[in-house]
Write a structure and sequence with these properties.
The chain is an all-alpha fold. It contains 6 helices and 2 strands; from the N terminus they run H-E-E-H-H-H-H-H. Helix 1 packs antiparallel against helix 2, helix 2 packs antiparallel against helix 3 and helix 3 runs antiparallel to helix 4.
């Protein structure tokens, strides 16, 4: 009697998890990518304008008193730094996708950290960026906005199953859902084809006896 060897369940290799990124088959203007682009673009544009206005006013680079621009205190160093960060965000807007999302999150954390650091430096002789309390609040607000723009659709525990980040983190479930979706589509197509064939046979003229 021939013996049949049953395959071991553990021998089946599970799909390897892919890096969390926007899938290549998604259109360039995918809504998540558009959202990341908008967030980076808006914040970047404001920072560039703020920095340029600060340089136009010819504020000293190391002036701790600084001058007011768009309701915020600034000096030459902060103006240049704002232009550099704003240009980086605009680059993220152009690139989009996973890069823009990660950039928004990283810079958002940096802004919040800068807010805490400069809050501790207020009223001291060492205030290289000429921060006032308005600048601190601005750093917190921009940091939270950038983190929101970067984390949207990426870190929530209730992501929809067509979300590329959910699919990257759950490849087995995504593959199973895709298989079920294909089977359902094939079943619907088969049913529609059989229905069309049955209607065609009923319309054929009956031959005379």
């Amino acid at each position: 009697m021939a013996a049949h060897v049953l395959p071991h369940k553990g021998s089946r290799k599970s799909p390897r998890k892919q890096p969390t990124r926007l899938n290549e088959h998604l259109p360039v203007d995918h809504r998540l990518s558009r959202f990341y682009r908008v967030g980076a673009g808006l914040m970047g544009l404001f920072l560039v304008v703020f920095g340029i206005l600060g340089l136009i006013n010819k504020i000293g680079f190391f002036s701790t008193a600084g001058d007011t621009v768009i309701g915020l205190n600034t000096n030459g160093t902060l103006s240049v730094l704002s232009i550099c960060v704003g240009a980086l965000l605009l680059a993220g807007m152009v690139i989009g996708g996973n890069f823009a999302s990660t950039l928004n999150m990283v810079l958002g954390i940096a802004f919040i950290g800068s807010g805490f650091i400069n809050l501790a430096l207020l009223g001291t002789s060492f205030n290289p960026l000429a921060f006032h309390i308005e600048n601190v609040l601005f750093s917190f607000v921009v940091g939270l906005l950038l983190m929101f723009f970067g984390m949207y659709g990426r870190v929530s525990s209730t992501l929809p199953h067509d979300n590329p980040y959910w699919r990257a983190r759950h490849p087995e479930e995504a593959e199973l859902e895709d298989r079920r979706r294909r089977e359902l589509q094939e079943r619907e197509q088969r049913t529609a084809r059989e229905r069309a064939e049955g209607q065609g046979q009923q319309r054929e003229p009956q031959g005379s006896p």
